[in-house]
Design a protein that fits this description.
Distance between the termini: 36 Å
Radius of gyration: 19 Å
Mean pLDDT: 96
Largest sheet: 7 strands, parallel
Shape: globular
CATH topology: Rossmann fold
Strand content: 15-25%
Number of strands: 15
Order of helices and strands: HHEHEHEHEHEEHEEHEEEHEEHEEHH
Number of domains: 1
Strand order of the largest sheet: 3-2-1-4-5-7-12
CATH architecture: 3-Layer(aba) Sandwich
Structural class: alpha/beta
Length: 345
């Protein structure tokens, strides 16, 4: 890894780090056949992920068509992605006629999903998380598909277990998690019926300066708000590491669909992370409730054997976040609700 900066001073610097392809990703693009399409590109992960693909192609000295698809209700977001050299298509993926109109592309990265406020709009949650994947699986049945999912499809497990494995049966708690399991089942069905090579990415949780579990905890410490310890443990992965892994997962597709847990190697303590932020903010964290013996945890040992362990240390990200928040820099305003234990997001 290149020498890391002491602090991240701008969104441009952050984007450069999040979209920086590593050597293995560049090498993969030199042998990967076909173009790429990112469905739901305008979300918190899609922009830097598509940008990394473009940078990897450039550094590999190859030319691929890279397309980002989204509603693009924010014109500035669309223009930003286009400045990276990525072609954009504006439209509603829930419209089957629009989806049929999309070009036939070999490599599909599916990012669309709904979590925030899902409890208050359950019909839309199911439409985006379960109905839409069925449309995509049918439309891109001749492609290879890497689809984002979530570790929320697992049950809460004993902390000392090390986290859920891909071989564990899902026990989705609440309608959000159930709809995400529906997403997986639709892609699995398409993979079996149409022999579509697919990989499902069960993610817990991506982090960077503007959102994520670490930011959620840091904000509560900084603002002297109580931190609920009920979900006392969690996993995270730096989004730049995640981006490299997701792109490389295009070589891990199979029929029936392959499943990969993607997260960092550590099981982190909410209390200990809050205390680290407390020292950086020079304040004492306020806690409520006690740590339960179970938590929502992923075990990524399978992915580590394929890709190696994530490179970015969590303590480095904590330092960066503390500086970012001290400087009152922009946040995405999308809390993870990681503390939820009943599945009601």
């Amino acid at each position: 890894m290149n020498k890391l900066p002491d602090k991240i001073e701008s969104e441009e610097q952050l984007e450069e780090l999040l979209s920086r392809p590593d050597t293995s990703t560049i090498e993969m693009f030199s042998r990967l056949d076909g173009d790429l399409i990112f469905l739901g590109v305008s979300g918190k992960i899609g922009q830097s992920l598509a940008n990394m693909a473009k940078r990897a192609c450039d550094q590999a000295g190859i030319n691929k068509r890279i397309i980002g698809v989204a509603k693009f209700e924010n014109k500035e977001a669309q223009q930003k992605i286009e400045r990276y050299g990525i072609e954009t298509i504006r439209g509603d993926l829930l419209d089957p006629e629009f989806t049929k109109s999309l070009p036939d592309i070999r490599n599909v990265i599916f990012l669309a999903g709904m979590k925030f406020g899902s409890t208050s709009n359950l019909a839309m949650t199911w439409a985006v998380n379960s109905y839409l994947p069925a449309i995509i699986a049918n439309n891109f049945r001749k492609s290879r598909i890497a689809a984002f999912s979530t570790g929320c499809v697992y049950s809460l497990v004993q902390v000392e277990s090390g986290g859920s494995l891909e071989t564990d049966l899902p026990e989705a708690i609440g309608e959000y998690a159930q709809s995400c399991l529906g997403r997986e089942r639709m892609f699995e069905y398409g993979s079996i019926r149409n022999k579509t090579e697919t990989v499902l990415i069960r993610l817990n949780y991506a982090v960077e300066m503007r959102y994520g579990v670490l930011v959620d905890i840091a904000l509560k410490v900084k603002n002297n708000q109580p931190i609920d310890l009920s979900m006392g443990y969690f996993n995270v992965i730096w989004q730049g590491d995640l981006n490299n892994i997701v792109l490389r997962s295009l070589e891990q597709v199979s029929s029936p669909a392959n499943i990969l847990n993607i997260t960092g190697p550590e099981i982190l303590s909410v209390r200990e992370v809050a205390e680290k932020f407390g020292k950086l903010f020079k304040t004492r964290p306020v806690f409520e409730n006690k740590e339960a013996k179970t938590a929502l945890l992923n075990n990524s040992a399978k992915a580590f054997k394929i890709f190696g362990k994530p490179q970015m240390p969590v303590d480095q990200v904590i330092l960066w976040i503390s500086w970012w928040l001290k400087e009152e820099k922009d946040l995405l305003g999308k809390p993870t609700h990681f503390e939820v234990r009943d599945g009601k997001y």
